[in-house]
């Protein structure tokens, strides 16, 4: 495998409430990505501000914090070749209205403020590592091999 990396993914409160956790996990599992961490948790106001710090001051920020803290989220770490970019591609565009059918946001969302899933931005260098650190301790991440790995990678 070249470019093996880990990325942070989260089913947002709307995705949890709409019963999409299993569907979303299935997509990543079937693609061949490996689940190395998972936490069903409630985001505090403080964590929301840290996680979305880059958006502080923008008109949608207060609504975003209110939304992301409104109910439990499914926080996960997925590992694989080029994982950060591949997850973003599978998620679709930030605005579900602009997301292609077949992507998670394109299949399950309609509104920018309720876009079902978060994934680390591959265009933001190191965002995956920072976000994993924010949500997980090192001993909460598992090192193991999936039995199909020798058939997933050349
Ligand atoms: P992402 O990396 O694709 O999630 O997009 P961004 O980092 O640009 O924005 C973070 C999150 O803020 C998005 O996923 C949306 O939930 C929310 N968001 C971004 N822009 C807007 C906006 O213009 N209006 C609203 N209501 N929410 C927004
Ligand atoms: Mg982002």
TrEMBL record:
Keyword vocabulary terms for this entry: ATP-binding, Cytoplasm, Kinase, Magnesium, Metal-binding, Nucleotide metabolism, Nucleotide-binding, Phosphoprotein, Transferase
E.C. numbers: 2.7.4.6
A biological-process GO annotation: CTP biosynthetic process
Subcellular location(s) of the protein: Cytoplasm
Residues forming the catalytic site: 118
GO MF term list: ATP binding; metal ion binding; nucleoside diphosphate kinase activity
GO cellular component: cytoplasm
Catalytic activity: a 2'-deoxyribonucleoside 5'-diphosphate + ATP = a 2'-deoxyribonucleoside 5'-triphosphate + ADP; a ribonucleoside 5'-diphosphate + ATP = a ribonucleoside 5'-triphosphate + ADP
Domain Nucleoside diphosphate kinase-like: from-to ranges: 4-143
CDD domains linked to this entry: NDPk_I (cd04413)
Highest taxon listed in the record's lineage: Archaea
SMART domains in the record: NDK
Binding site for ATP: 12, 60, 88, 94, 105, 115
Pfam families in the record: NDK (PF00334)
InterPro entries to which the protein is assigned, alphabetical: NDK-like_dom, NDK-like_dom_sf, Nucleoside_diP_kinase
Cofactor(s) recorded in Swiss-Prot or TrEMBL: Mg(2+)
Biological role stated in the UniProt entry: Major role in the synthesis of nucleoside triphosphates other than ATP. The ATP gamma phosphate is transferred to the NDP beta phosphate via a ping-pong mechanism, using a phosphorylated active-site intermediate.
Family: Belongs to the NDK family.
Protein's UniProt name: Nucleoside diphosphate kinase
